[in-house]
Amino acid sequence: MSEQIKYLLDEADMPKDWYNLAADLPVPLPAVLHPGTLQPVGPADLAPLFPDSLIMQEVSTERHIEIPDAVRRVFRQWRPAPLYRARRLEEALGTPARIYYKYEGVSPAGSHKPNTAIPQAFYNMEAGIKRLTTETGAGQWGTSLAFAGALFGLEIQVFQVRVSYNQKPYRRAVMETYGASCVASPSSLTESGRAILAKNPDHPGSLGIAISEAVELAVQRDDTKYALGSVLNHVLLHQTIIGLEAMKQLEIAGDDPDVIVGCTGGGSNFAGIAFPFLGQQLRGGRTRRIVAVEPAACPSLTRGKYAYDFGDTAHLTPLTKMHTLGSTFTPPGFHAGGLRYHGMAPMVSHIKELGLIEAVAYHQTQCFEAGVTFARAEGIVPAPEANHAVKGAIEEALRCKREGRSEVILFNLCGHGHFDMAAYTDYFSNRLADLEYDEAELAMALAGLPSVPD
Amino acid sequence: MSEQIKYLLDEADMPKDWYNLAADLPVPLPAVLHPGTLQPVGPADLAPLFPDSLIMQEVSTERHIEIPDAVRRVFRQWRPAPLYRARRLEEALGTPARIYYKYEGVSPAGSHKPNTAIPQAFYNMEAGIKRLTTETGAGQWGTSLAFAGALFGLEIQVFQVRVSYNQKPYRRAVMETYGASCVASPSSLTESGRAILAKNPDHPGSLGIAISEAVELAVQRDDTKYALGSVLNHVLLHQTIIGLEAMKQLEIAGDDPDVIVGCTGGGSNFAGIAFPFLGQQLRGGRTRRIVAVEPAACPSLTRGKYAYDFGDTAHLTPLTKMHTLGSTFTPPGFHAGGLRYHGMAPMVSHIKELGLIEAVAYHQTQCFEAGVTFARAEGIVPAPEANHAVKGAIEEALRCKREGRSEVILFNLCGHGHFDMAAYTDYFSNRLADLEYDEAELAMALAGLPSVPD
Which ranges in A256-378 belong to alpha helices (H)? Predict the structure, then answer.
């Protein structure tokens, strides 16, 4: 049996700054537009939702942004996160490629989400905020914000899409263990929730409705703000600690990645592993292939349109230019709930449009098959979302085998699957189907994109 | 907010030997007796079940037993496991005590069980064995052996108590992800299973029946052996890597424990954290308090009798002298399934009888309350079993607060609760009762202990 190798970093080598890709973009990001005026939004427009420190990060073009000491002290519980050389997986595949993976499942919440939940909670606490509202689908993000709230003494109100709330009681139990309050959305806590319940008391909910409820509650009280777990620039910024650590660890390993792979839903874990490497390239460094892997049932990067669209189905958010399937598009209920989003982070969309990254889509059974191969070789059971990255990396490794090339592949294993084992049960009992989205619905959703003058 | 502190060890400082308490015992362990002859068993009696290397460890009195390189290479994925100074918990409790915990949930299986699953699989592989059988209740042990089997190319057959098999499909899914076969026990795979099913096709199963099935299958084929996850001397030996690492980490922290706390079911995680420190004491070192925490609903150390008894309800195993509630005693169905065993490891029982350790029992709601306090302060959600250790440590910390003493408390956080969140859901919805065992049943079980001449 080959020897798997772990590369740790000393705590002293944990990055002291996040890396901001906006500083190195050859073309700046398209403006964010106000949903009413279609004019670019300014920081003041975002003030009801976010504290100034996060708004400044959202619009910053500074290359390095300091990670507060209080945040680094919390990170030290599980960071620097390990980088592994997947020797046992290489052996199982018979590939000459060298496969590395960064493992973010070591956080107490089990995924990369605390990388941004902790700073978001810290900045809000620092600004005197007492309460945060948020939405969550499967629950990875709600869990992470609940964890962060417990540490910084913030009350956390999570609106969980009702269908997930009922299907995944374990996630809710984790949020409650951390002291957060989690209600099924639509709820009776908000006007928008009550309006929907009045029409349909059994409404299954949607991420769009949950966002509306969280935003409505946040703007009502001065002591309350809103938090988002992906998509926004400052969220992607916070995740760059992943790639910055991996870069140092690969230096210790004496290797340099030819291909970097991450899965994409909103885009934050992908940005986290990829942006620091892409920044090097944009500053004149080596060109590497960067591959975003998305679910075939919700293929925003590979099948979506690059256009201005709303972030939510209720159309309360500003308009951003992004790869989108249309804000009214409802992806089928596949298991990687964290990847079921109609749009893509504007910054990830932008670099895709600039030709700086590739994108590929896989169906879920292929991804679970890859995840099982990985688990038997490496011992870690990946989350359904992470299985997409595993699939992407295995495909690259098999290409290397066919081509006889010993390339270096790096991928981000963004979380473990402990709370998602029902999906594996379905996979083993052949109850896992390759869900297809409705082509007519997609066409309609794309036709309904808001019209924005150039 | 106080700063939690993590103490890591370099891989080079991972222990190279296990520590064998048998070398330092002031009085040797009572003999293990053959169930038929009541005469001491020899190594040959155990040969159908275990490879020679493990039998030699079972009876060894050498102080240090080398950890094979192949085992240490696997351990390097997650070992040395972190030791944390629980500063945030100390602050939450307002205690002058300094609390440290060793965290074993970082293993891919989520608990300390791989510490023995990996070497057991390795020694069997080395002996040419192709298949291992075992029983599991809640599933922590079955999961860990499945993981080990995947790494060493062994087929793993798990007999899971039917009631758990039906209640905990997530654990089974993990075992299957690792490639193990897991069947509900009683099963139709064995004579003993078929005999029970013939009488009652809906029999809920028991750990005793599952052991019978696993043993029956193991002795039938030369290429098959049996593996046990606790109780036996060699299992306790393998777990001492926990305490050996903690000892080095506390040296780095510049502290020395006054009290060591672990939860006890079969006794292996408790032995793991405690034996290396107890060994120091027996060789003339400092005396420390060592506290075993057990469930009040299955209190072998605090309410059991120190007597010869069978390890299984079907009376197939040898007789060992231990604290036992009687092999026919059925503990009520509380959530810490890993602690629901009628007996205690003979070596743990022996040192309790010698007055070298203390024991205390708590009800499950108290333990979950402690676990929630811990999770909100430290971010890690403990397994129901580990909550007993958390409760024990918090009680010691509160005593220190009352007495104004800044003692050093070390406890073993033997696993996370990701697969046990249903128990937390029950706790939060007030569906968790403090189950009491049946006093009459206990009296009957104790009256039925086998009679063994002195």
Answer: 268-282, 300-303, 346-353, 364-378
Residue A299 and residue A328 in contact, taking contact as beta carbons nearer than 8 Å = no
**A380 touching B (Cβ < 8 Å):** yes
- Residues with Cβ < 8 Å from A417, sequence gap 6 or more? A371, A381, A382, A383, A384, A386, A387, A423, A424
pLDDT of residue A1: 67
The answer to whether the CB of A41 falls within 8 A of the CB of A32 is yes
- ipTM, 2 decimals? 0.94
Q: Chain A residue with minimal CA distance to B369?
A: A177
* Domain presence at residue A47: no
Asked if A5's CB is within 8 angstroms of B173's CB, the reply is no
In a domain, B58, yes or no: no
* Interchain proximity B173–A424, CB inside 8 Å: yes
The three state secondary structure string of A199-227 is HCCCCCCCHHHHHHHHHHHHHHCCCEEEC
Q: Which residues have a Cβ under 8 Å from the Cβ of B405 and sit 6 or more positions away?
A: B96, B97, B399
Q: Tell me: do A271 and A387 sit in the same domain.
A: yes
What is the CATH classification number for the domain harbouring B397? 3.40.50.1100
B113 touches A at CB < 8 Å: no
Domain tally, chain B: 2
pLDDT by position in tens, chain B (length 454): 677 788 988 888 999 999 999 999 999 999 999 988 999 998 899 999 999 999 999 999 999 999 999 999 999 999 999 999 999 999 999 999 999 999 999 999 999 999 999 999 999 999 999 999 999 988 999 999 999 999 999 999 999 989 888 888 889 999 999 999 999 999 999 998 999 999 999 888 888 789 889 999 999 999 999 999 999 999 999 999 999 999 999 999 999 999 999 999 999 999 999 999 999 999 999 999 999 999 999 999 999 999 999 987 778 788 999 999 998 887 887 787 778 888 999 999 999 999 999 999 999 999 999 999 999 999 999 999 999 999 999 999 999 999 999 999 999 999 999 999 989 999 999 998 888 898 999 999 999 999 887 6
Window 137-196 of B: residues touching A by CB (8 A cutoff) are 147, 150-153, 169-174, 176-179
Helix ranges restricted to H, B381-420: 384-403
Instruction: Assess if residue A26 is contained within a domain.
Output: no
| Chain A residues closer than 8 Å to B425 by CB | 169-170, 172-173
First to last CA, chain A: 59
Question: Residue A373 carries which side chain, given as an amino acid letter?
Answer: T
Q: Which of B143, B168, B421, B426 to mutate to test the interface with A (most CBs of A within 10 A)?
A: B421
Query: In the prediction, which pLDDT does A445 show?
Result: 92
Binary contact (B418, A77; C-beta < 8 A): no
Written as six digits, the tokens of B80 are 């040395």
- Tell me which of A232, A249, A274 is where a domain ends: A232
H or E, element range at A121: helix A114-126
Does B151 contact A77 at a Cβ distance shorter than 8 Å? no
Q: Which two tokens stand for residue B379?
A: 């971010």
- Give the structural domain span for B100: 6-13+67-110+234-447
Same domain? For B373 and B247 the reply is yes
Mark whether B123 and B244 lie in a shared domain: no
Q: Which of B99, B110, B163, B185 is nearest to B141 (CA)?
A: B110
